[in-house]
């Protein structure tokens, strides 16, 4: 059995800045392999609260460099490697996170890790016995990839930050469980704000028909709309059971 724990469910500037929801990313454990996906601000603190030990992590995945997905990356690398005493753990991140002016992983920490792997589109990766794939490149201001994990024989797709586009669907087809970052209740008027809204999620669920869907990474318009009610309405409309994640929610697979 695998488990997924939502250490935080905040998305976008305001909800993260005010900590209206926590922003700790997602902890995944499967057959002794432990990883943290998108270590946003406070991940280290939320892990301590949940008695999850960072030095027991095998890897960290950062889907893109935005702060709500990566702020605690460096401290977690330090904690995972016990300050470099033990060279261990893998870090997966897009090229942009390693090179260039938006690089987020501090150079002095890099040799502490066992390996750094660059995420590219539609590629298979391994962390211990755990296998995952990247999606096509998402439409988002930063270089962003969704993650499809194989957990207990199920395919679990993390549809992270993106504008909706039809090419997105192919990457997540066949996922039994979809976890979607739904920042917006309605589409944003500005084309620069590239996030999913509820209507996009409805379309994705109708087209892909997973066994189950989880909404997370809520911005202010979603918090105001009440994510639980949004999830119930989506369940009724699509026939797919939809849950709105809460901070600390655990999913067994
Ligand atoms: Zn983002």
Automatic annotation (TrEMBL):
Gene3D superfamilies: Ribonuclease Z/Hydroxyacylglutathione hydrolase-like
Molecular function GO terms recorded: 3'-tRNA processing endoribonuclease activity
Any single Pfam family the record assigns to this protein: Lactamase_B_2
Transmembrane segments: none
CDD domains assigned to the protein according to its UniProt record, in alphabetical order: metallo-hydrolase-like_MBL-fold
Domain Metallo-beta-lactamase: 22-217
PANTHER family: ZINC PHOSPHODIESTERASE ELAC PROTEIN 1
Protein name as catalogued: MBL fold metallo-hydrolase
